[in-house]
């Protein structure tokens, strides 16, 4: 999977052959086919692995927020830093594209977003306990959009480094949530 991550990110999913994957992983093509039916299964495994890792990290943030170890603003800052520090931007675009073509990959991505949205709702309510109904749904969508956009900002030539972006972004998200009704 590490070789697939690297090669798919560098060359693209459809431009990478199974032989190149085998060479990059220093295994035989036959071994890859014993583990995966095809490249689509490898993409699904990468998504599932990333989901599990992101959910585990976000669970820790939620636990620390709930325990009062840090403020909701710090929780959002850490959440944004997780996204900003992800270096698989090109791979992520390829995975999203594959999710529109491949129902299984699409379902895995959809499930990830549904699990992740529950955390965003919790963080939004920590910033503004009065959020409910449409306001809470809107907050969830806006936060998700911010996170998604920040995770794909390389091509926009950002002026701020990841730390400053996370700090300022968290401040703005919390201010918006507190002002929402």
UniProtKB/TrEMBL annotation:
DNA-binding region: 17-36
Domain HTH tetR-type: 1-54
UniProt keyword annotation of DNA-binding present: yes
MF GO annotations: DNA-binding transcription factor activity; transcription cis-regulatory region binding
Gene3D superfamilies xref list: Tetracycline Repressor, domain 2
UniProt xrefs under InterPro entries: Homeodomain-like_sf (IPR009057), HTH-type_TetR-like_transc_reg (IPR050109), HTH_TetR (IPR001647)
Keywords, comma-separated and alphabetical: DNA-binding, Repressor, Transcription, Transcription regulation
Name of this protein: HTH tetR-type domain-containing protein
Native organism: Sphingobium ummariense RL-3
High-level lineage: Bacteria, Pseudomonadati, Pseudomonadota, Alphaproteobacteria, Sphingomonadales
């Amino acid at each position: 999977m590490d070789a697939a991550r690297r090669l798919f990110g560098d060359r693209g999913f459809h431009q990478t052959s199974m032989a190149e994957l085998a060479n990059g992983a220093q295994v035989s093509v036959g071994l890859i086919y014993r583990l995966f039916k095809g490249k689509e299964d490898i993409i699904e495994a990468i998504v599932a692995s990333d989901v599990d890792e992101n959910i585990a990290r976000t669970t820790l943030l939620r636990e620390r927020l709930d325990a009062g170890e840090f403020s909701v603003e710090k929780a959002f800052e850490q959440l944004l830093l997780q996204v900003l520090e992800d270096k698989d931007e090109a791979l992520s675009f390829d995975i999203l594209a594959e999710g529109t073509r491949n129902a299984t990959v699409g379902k895995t991505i959809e499930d990830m977003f549904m699990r992740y949205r529950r955390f965003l709702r919790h963080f939004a309510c920590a910033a503004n306990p009065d959020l409910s109904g449409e306001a809470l749904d809107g907050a969830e969508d806006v936060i998700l959009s911010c996170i998604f956009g920040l995770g794909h900002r390389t091509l926009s030539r950002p002026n701020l480094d990841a730390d400053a972006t996370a700090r300022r972004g968290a401040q703005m998200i919390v201010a918006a949530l507190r002002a929402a009704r």
